[in-house]
Amino acid sequence: MIAWIVIAICWVTSFVFGGIEAGLLSLDQVRLRHQVKLRNHAAIRLDQLLKKPERLLATVLLVTNLADIAGLLLLTKRLVALLGMAGYPVALLVAGPIYLFLLGVLPKSLFRRFPYRALAAFAGLLVFTSRLLWPILELGSQLGQLLFRRTAAPPRLFAAREDLKQLTVESERQGALTSAERAMIHNVVDFRTVKVADVMVTREKIVAVVPETTIPELLELSARTGIERVPVLAENGRALGLVNVFDIVLDKSTPRELSHYMEHIVSSGETESAYRTIRRLRAAQSTLAAVFDEEHRLTGIVTVEDLVRRLVQSA
Hints:
By secondary structure, the chain is an alpha+beta fold.
């Protein structure tokens, strides 16, 4: 009877620590840190353990494997004692489904679905086990340092973008964020995936002038359309530069040719990220870029206002 109780304890231990292993790999780091800020005791203990994730994972794997092996050996020994040599195949038939589904698939599925809740419930057990196995793990760590050279690990990201978005969704549900604030944060997070082609004004809608345009014609065009920065295009559609109407209005000297007020225009590809384009515009101290396709044909223009509007717009 005692043997069966010990086997059951081994299987329960394997179930719990097998699930903990899956939970550690699925844990939402953003939610954990949020709970730490709320001074949640279980979250604080988990956060302290995760300061050394490799050691924590080694602890979990060590306990899981020991429990699996001990349970299987005891089960086999007990069945052999009852059935003789037939106990070996019977042990295989009994242990196979139990270890594959009950101790393998089931705990991992449960802990992956609710990783934080499950780990928080067993935080005390993890702390106790880590302290209990500390001498073994420390000895293994020292041996590993002697046998293998450690290379500098790359810095770990605080959280993935999807984790941050998930946190904002949960904050909205709790009333900490409005739907507009949540949508704005999502847009900022997703801005790196936005292409210039998604934001630009197409060539058909561009308000532009040619080099031969006179100053009065340009001023009249600006007054009619409300546009202050006008691109200058050659007859073949090539972007020559950019004219700021305010430079002309504020110039008190003798009226000059349009080319005198023309500034360099930043060029951008359709597939270039909007994030990179806005950085280039800031570096060039410009507010408008000409957009070209793969064959270097002008397909549109994009302004800083268009990019910023896309960045902060609320869905």
